[in-house]
Amino acid sequence: MKRSILFIATIAVLLLSPFRSLTSCPGATAPEGTITERLAEAVNVYLDGEFDSGLAITDELLSRKSLASGDSVAILEVKSIITYAKGQKYKREAFGYLQSISNIGHCMMNFPREMWPSELRDKWYEISKSKDMLVCANETGPDTRTIAIMEFDNFSVGEYKESLGDLSKGLADFFEFDFSKFGGVRIVERDKLDYLLREAKLSEEGKIDPATAVKAGKMLGAQMMVFGSITQLDGKNARMVVRVVDVETSEIVTTADMEGKPNFVEMEKALVKDIAGKLNLAFSKEAGAAIEESATDDMDAARLYSLGLKYMDEYEYEKAYDYFRKAYEKDNSFAEAKKKMEIYKPLVS
Q1: How far is residue 99's CA from residue 155's CA, in Å, rounded to a whole number?
Q2: What value does the CA radius of gyration of the chain take, rounded to a whole number of Å?
Q3: Distance of alpha carbon 214 from alpha carbon 228, whole angstroms
Q4: Which residue from 214, 210, 213, 260 is spatially nearest to 240, judged by alpha carbons?
Q5: CA 84 to chain centre
């Protein structure tokens, strides 16, 4: 199966890079790089749907004597992902590997990573919450500002309320991705915030009170929260508003808004830069280029991608994959849709 260079690079970052130094830890028995290479092979066959072959590799690695704890965590992570992909009756086993990782060292690595299916991610948050470790000490630094981004509200009316559908979910995802490109910022995972809101029953009928959302953000170590909204009243005019709230005081730190033709993905990029400037975030040429190249300028592709996120969050992976695929077909420069499509393909059927 041919995969994009971007996706191969993503896998390297998500799964392999953090493990390169682990095999040199005291107690590791394999030559440096061997475990990394074998894990790369296990991930590759998993992406091709050869789950048992991938598990055979992880089993061989776990059978090695005197594994360093970091090696064990790396192997169990891959083993959990592949086991989960085998289907409903293997879920408990996959969850058990996450529990084993937590027992070895819950904060040893910054989990979950993007390649984890959404149900595995939620299970990790459940384990984290039970241990009062939703936030690890190694996630933040003294000069890092932690920001949580809420799903945007859709205040449109009539046909536009319906046609924009779950676009507000996608816009929050785009905003999160773009904001992460600035220096000195850590973004709270969107699904971690959603999980906490669901568990705490802070939302009713799909509406979340800003005060309770801020409370949840504070529990996750956020210093600021971003709230956004979109409004379309007719076929020519639209508005997007973003406000940043100080979690400690609940006061509005800054706001930005934009009016114009109803292309909210273009508005999102402009407002990201506006808000970042008002917060004095470090802005490099590289960050600017990454923001311009991210996501899509095609509203139809953005809507399809947003539906993919909706079904991803609901563990309906076949539908999620299908919408990510449609989004990429609509705009084949839409790198994030391509990446998620390839991540969720092994879970289809």
Answers
A1: 41
A2: 21
A3: 14
A4: 260
A5: 18
Pairing of strands 224-232, 153-154: parallel
Taking the C-alpha atoms of residue 197 and residue 213, their distance in angstroms, rounded to an integer, is 7
Q: Give the chain's length.
A: 349
Q: Rounded to 5 degrees, what are φ and ψ at 224?
A: -135, 155
Residue 313 CA neighbour count, 13 Å, CB half: 19
DSSP E strands, the chain: 145-149, 153-154, 185-187, 203-204, 207-208, 224-232, 238-246, 252-260
CB 19 within 8 A of CB 74: yes
CB 200 within 8 A of CB 225: no
Average pLDDT over residues 179-190: 88
Residue type, 317: Y
Q: What is the pLDDT of residues 233-264, one digit of tens each?
A: 898 999 999 999 999 999 999 999 999 999 99
Q: Kindly state the greatest CA–CA separation across the chain.
A: 67
| pTM of the model as a whole | 0.86
Those residues whose C-beta lies under 8 Å from the C-beta of residue 35, and which sit 6 or more positions away, are: 19, 22, 23, 28, 61, 71, 74, 75
The residue with tokens 């924009």 is 164
- Cα separation, 286 vs 289, in Å, equals 5
Q: Are 104 and 62 in contact (CB under 8 A)?
A: no
Residue identified by tokens 């906490």 is 196
How many CA atoms, within 13 angstroms, populate the side-chain half-sphere of residue 322?
Answer: 7
Q: Model confidence over 60-113: pLDDT tens digits?
A: 999 998 899 999 999 999 999 999 999 999 999 999 999 999 999 999 988 999
Q: Which two three-digit tokens encode residue 37?
A: 């290479």
Nearest to 14 by CA among 51, 37, 40: 40
pLDDT for residue 135 is more than 50 = yes
Question: Cα–Cα distance between 221 and 264 in angstroms, integer?
Answer: 29
Type of residue found at 70: G
Strand, coil or helix: 290: helix
How far apart CA 128 and CA 123 sit, in angstroms, is 9
Residue 92 class from Cβ within 10 Å (0-12 exposed, 13-18 middle, 19+ buried)? exposed
